[in-house]
């Protein structure tokens, strides 16, 4: 039975059944005995409880240098010549911007110092014609002149104020502008004062009465008004460095304080003022004077608009600010209207405009006001009628040299 039981367990212990039967069972082995350990009165009992440790602060992971984001591929630097060219272009752009600011700022500053005058008369007025009609007046005002300067310029000490120069500048919607001289000795009806020389209208009622007299005798409506006195005229002439004129004959006039030689020459303030005011030594009298006035005005506009004035900062500053104390414009004037007037004068002086004088019937008529100029009313009406329609194409027949 014991053998059979052992055979049954052979499969469990992976024994060879035949070998198991032939071999005796291994005798029992005794383990060697160990001597007891010496008695220890204070035995160290190892605790089986886990050792309590002080809480440790959380450790940060080892720091690593921050990883920089990937940089975009750097564009290759332009060649040195290209970099220099860009710097030069930037410098030129800055310079041009500064010049532009200067060209704009100076007129704005000067415009803020210009005097204003009420010129629009009350009551009925002519209908507004196409385009713009400027009334330009050169008065004999001594404002801004000391007694010594009045003596030097030969202006006299008259207490009253009259107009030495009266011009109409018409700028049509299309076509050539026209500069029309009105002789100061023109004998015309002055509203409320009967008939007299037109320059007396300013003395009687200032800019408003002068404007009303112009409108009544021309049938045109004055849109803009500009007035300059003696001091302003001299300042402008000096600011542009004088004007160039060519005289066929010498001019000597004690009243105008001038003694000019024959030939081409440059006239500065005093001589230029005497040149436009002189009439006693002129065989054409007042008509000769209006021709010189247009000549000088055209030369002033041409020189003022020349590149030499713009590129010269000192001249540009002096011109913009010259005569502001003795310069007056209408209350409705703007910088745009003033620039439009200057441009039109430049066109006239360059030959792209018309220079006219009111048609005259008698240049030396005897009237209650003394020697006066009488208009040719029929021709004057025709000329002003064309302007009232906004057409300057037929005005050439009234043109004067």
From TrEMBL:
Protein keywords: Membrane, Transmembrane, Transmembrane helix
Locate the Cell envelope-related transcriptional attenuator domain: which residues? 162-305
Transmembrane segment boundaries: 88-111
Q: Where is the composition biased (Pro residues)?
A: 55-76
Which residue stretches belong to region Disordered? Answer: 1-82
State where composition is biased (Basic and acidic residues).
1-27
Signal peptide residue numbers:
none
What family, per the record? Answer: Belongs to the LytR/CpsA/Psr (LCP) family.
What protein name applies here?
Cell envelope-related transcriptional attenuator domain-containing protein
Q: Which organism is it from?
A: Microlunatus endophyticus
User: Source taxonomy lineage?
Assistant: Bacteria, Bacillati, Actinomycetota, Actinomycetes, Propionibacteriales
